[in-house]
Amino acid sequence: MHDINDAYKLGMHDDIAGAIKMVPKILASTAVNFVWVGLVEELITGQFTDDRRGLGSKALTFTAGMIAQSIVGLRDLSYDLTHGQESIGLISTPIHHLQQFLRDVDKANPLGRAHAGKLVQDFCSTLGDLSGACPTHMGSIMRYGIDSFNGFQHPRSVGDVYRGLSTGTQKMRIQRK
Question: For 2-16, what is each residue's pLDDT tens digit?
């Protein structure tokens, strides 16, 4: 994005023709840095999300997120507003994992078939946050394996298995806002 600054400097030195010649380069870098990133992000997150928002809503959310990422502290506020979830920055992930694990342990039968997969996933995430011994993704794989063995996950396609191994469950998250 230094091209914009260079064009500004040319304009300040009364070289308007030079600044105008920079417009195609600025548009190309904008397309690469924003439009292409948005398309790739939508393709990747669309694998795990049944996004029921309209194209305009998706575009505004992405644009607000990209702008917010350039201002320190505004990223978390933007995430809170666009996703409807509370975030405290980098510290929120380990706190969330610990809360999930404690909530799982507090259930009536935490090691029962219905809760074992989630308990193992959250334990692994918490252990990974505290010691680095077990990455969060390993917990997702273990949860999917346990839930499949216990009959709670029924993979019907390669996509189901991919989502299951990536997120711990083969269900797609529904996005409505």
Answer: 778 888 888 888 888
Q: Where are the domains of the chain?
A: 2-83, 92-172
pLDDT in tens, 95-125: 778 888 988 999 888 888 888 998 999 999 8
Query: Which DSSP string corresponds to the chain?
Result: -HHHHHHHHHHHTT-HHHHHHTHHHHHHHHIIIIIIHHHHHHHHHTTTEEE-S-HHHHHHHHHHHHHHHTSTTHHHHHHHHHH----BTBTHHHHHHHHHHHHHHTSSSTTSTTTHHHHHHHHHHHHHHHHSSS-HHHHHHHHHHHHHHTTS----SHHHHHHHHHHSSSSPEEE--
